[in-house]
């Protein structure tokens, strides 16, 4: 590749990167000067967030109740006296003709 072609390719890449940076800066400046009236209404989001918070609190309470029930059952099983298992007499082996 000749040095002239290489210089043209590098110049194009630099130009594209420069345009992308300029466009990003322009968008940042435009968004900074946007009026508050143009922003979406956030009232319904506050209500939705409150419902989500309530659901999370309720779920946490239910999980805690379930964990307490597990601890209680584990304690009962640990304190239970050990009883020898009943032995069921095994049936005699029967050979059937085929």
Count of individual beta strands? 0
User: What gyration radius follows from the Cα positions, in whole Å?
Assistant: 37 Å
> How do the SSEs run, as a string of H and E?
HH
Largest sheet: none
Mean pLDDT: 85
Distance between the termini: 88 Å
Helix content: 55-70%
Q: Structural class of the helix and strand makeup?
A: mainly alpha
- Please state roughly what percent of the residues sit in beta strands, choosing from under 5%, 5-15%, 15-25%, 25-35%, 35-45% or over 45%: under 5%
Tally the structural domains: 2
Helices and strands in order:
Elements: H1 3-32, H2 43-79
Overall description:
The chain is mostly helical and 98 residues long. Helix content is 68%, strand content 0%. The protein has helices at 3-32, 43-79. The radius of gyration is 37 Å and the shape is elongated. The relative contact order is 0.04. The model has no long low-confidence stretch (mean pLDDT 85).
Features:
98 residues; mainly alpha; 0% strand; elongated
In brief:
Helices cover 68% and strands 0% of the residues. The protein is mostly helical and 98 residues long. It folds into two domains: 1-37; 40-78.
């Amino acid at each position: 590749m000749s040095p002239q072609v290489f210089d043209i390719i590098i110049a194009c890449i630099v130009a594209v990167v420069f345009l992308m940076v300029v466009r990003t800066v322009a968008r940042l400046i435009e968004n900074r000067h946007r009026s508050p009236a143009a922003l979406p209404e956030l009232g319904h989001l506050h209500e939705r967030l409150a419902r989500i918070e309530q659901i999370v609190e309720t779920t946490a309470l239910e999980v805690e109740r379930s964990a307490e029930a597990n601890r209680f059952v584990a304690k009962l099983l640990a304190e239970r006296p050990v009883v020898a298992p009943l032995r069921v007499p095994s049936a005699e082996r029967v050979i059937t003709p085929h």
